Amino acid sequence: MKWDSYLNGYKAFLQLEKSLSGNTIEAYLHDVKSLIQFLEHSGENLQPSQVTVRHLQALLKWVTELNMTPRTQSRLVSGLKSFYKFLVLENIIQVDPTELLDAPRIGRKLPVVLTNREIDTMIGVIDLSKPEGERNKAILEILYGCGLRVTELIELKISSLYFPEGFVRIIGKGNKERLVPIGKSAQKQITIYKDSVRPLLPVKHVDEDTLFLNRRGSKLTRAMIFTIVRDLAGKAGIRKTISPHTFRHSFATHLVEGGADLRAVQEMLGHESITTTEIYTHLDREYLRSTISQFHPRK
């Protein structure tokens, strides 16, 4: 099967017209490659225009037998719909087989959230006697203080820090720019790292404006941020399954619990739709329910 030209065109479409991040593009391409893998496994030598809804339904049955979760299946269907929408737009096909394809029903999964005490504990176990300690403390402070995505964190520029005004400029999904307020605690720790630790690193020319660097003076990777967070969670004795994104969830949840306007939270998180932000109202209700269960005499 010669799908390479279609994949290359689709990748360019996602990059240029949709302005998606590299990670999101790879996820969409992976969805299409899953279809290609299934067709090869089934002995079907088909082009995209020859794929029918019957083939796609067989694909979903196949991935179910491979123990793919309903949530991942739904993600797969979304990716395939995007690919075939591109083929229709480019007049490569006339009929979109995904129009009749239903994604599996999934419940809304509430994200894991850290308490203030747990966040303080994680920050408290950081070894500040090591140069990377000040950096890691700054990373946790801004993850929680500004609700950043991992990619937004590692791409954060020194020139995007507007501390006198109390803001940082973030380039989010689709290269959309937003200004996010930053508190005094995060400002203080970032300043310590930026002024006292970072100047001692052999900064690579390409990363001169990048805020957070590794010991070799290069931009941090996504994997490194995950490693830092999980290592600190283990040292802090936190048994929840957490990731850097947990700080983003905690940032939003604590704002909603404190009475913040949902539209303001949406703006700070960079959500395109308010419905994405509304999950934090569900978290707030869960918090209230657990509070009653714990403290009400007639629980």
List low-confidence stretches.
none
**Describe the biggest sheet?**
3 strands, antiparallel
Give the number of helices.
13
Q: Care to count the β-strands?
A: 3
Regarding quaternary structure, what we see is: single chain
Instruction: Specify the CATH homologous superfamily of the largest domain.
Output: Intergrase catalytic core
Query: What is the string of SSEs from the N terminus onward?
Result: HHHHHHHEEEHHHHHH
- The CATH topology of the largest domain comes to hpI Integrase, Chain A
Overall description:
By secondary structure, the chain is mainly alpha-helical. The protein has two domains: 4-100, DNA polymerase, domain 1 (Orthogonal Bundle); 116-295, Intergrase catalytic core (hpI Integrase, Chain A, Orthogonal Bundle), CATH 1.10.443.10. 56% of the residues lie in helices and 4% in strands. It contains 13 helices and three strands; from the N terminus they run H-H-H-H-H-H-H-E-E-E-H-H-H-H-H-H. It has helices at 4-16, 22-41, 53-65, 70-89, 116-124, 131-146, 150-154, 184-197, 222-235, 244-257, 262-269, 274-277, 279-295, and strands at residues 161-162, 167-171, 177-181. The mean pLDDT is 88.
